[in-house]
Design brief:
By secondary structure, the chain is mostly helical. It has one helix and no strands. It has one helix at 24-39.
Length: 47
């Protein structure tokens, strides 16, 4: 499970790089992010 970054972390103010194409690595990251949000209970990640 990924670590959830909370405010006021400076990383939340950084500008993300554009995604030029969705490949297997990007898809894997997206799935890890979804699982982290669904499985998080303190505080609840989704909903």
């Amino acid at each position: 499970m990924l670590k959830i970054v909370i405010a006021p972390s400076p990383i939340l103010s950084s500008i993300a790089k554009p995604v030029s194409r969705v490949d297997a690595a990007v898809t894997r990251i997206i799935e890890e992010m979804k699982k982290t949000l669904i499985d998080t209970t303190d505080p609840k990640g989704v909903g």
